[in-house]
Amino acid sequence: xxxxxxxxxxxxxxxxxxxxxxxxxxxxxxxxxxxxxxxxxxxxxxxxxxxxxxxxxxxxxxxxxxxxxxxxxxxxxxxxxxxxxxxxxxxxxxxxxxxxxxxxxxxxxxxxxxxxxxxxxxxxxxxxxxxxxxxxxxxxxxxxxxxxxxxxxxxxxxxxxxxxxxxxxxxxxxxxxxxxxxxxxxxxxxxxxxxxxxxxxxxxxxxxxxxxxxxxxxxxxxxxxxxxxxxxxxxxxxx
Length: 239
Fold this sequence. Notes:
Blueprint: E1 7-14, E2 22-29, E3 34-38, H1 42-53, E4 60-65, E5 68-69, H2 76-82, E6 86-89, H3 101-106, H4 118-130, H5 147-159, E7 165-169, H6 180-193, E8 197-201, H7 205-211, E9 214-219, E10 224-226
Parallel strand pairs: 3-8, 3-9, 6-7, 7-8
Antiparallel strand pairs: 1-2, 1-4, 4-5, 9-10
Helix pairs in contact: 5-6, 6-7
């Protein structure tokens, strides 16, 4: 018996500030599967993430997470509760620049961060190590960390509470050229160890090849998702 997809999209159309609407005809992400999507620029990627999380609903079609249509979320309180299903990795996500890396990573687990309780510190330090963060970085403020470490911090924050779906939105856009592969390997390691359903929006071929178990390219005019042609992916763009 085939497991129900964690994420299922059917016939979606969503108008936004672009020449054409975002169109996605069909996408299923199975439990434990890591799917990378290309063909969505920064604006389309933000719309896509909002559709997946239920922050907005499609003009046409249906988005389902764990079998529940995002259009069925009745009010703001129910939507806020539904966000526990998601872990988001994005350059748009906020970390506290003046707080240390350890404090930022511990915040989902405890309100006490000065000092961080020993059990929370042990948990986040272990997960940070799994994500490829050197323990010597933990006492440094976020503002002093290189982008590659900061994105790993976003990855740790995204998975620490055990979401059902991990969503990555152009996560290598601020990384140096050549850093994507190592970060992709970290995503595959962390998500794979938890059998996390993962959907990745990225134009970074090295990152996507390392992170994903399946890659698809969106044909914007038709809304079809197909395996990318050789050379389709581009290097990370500036935001």
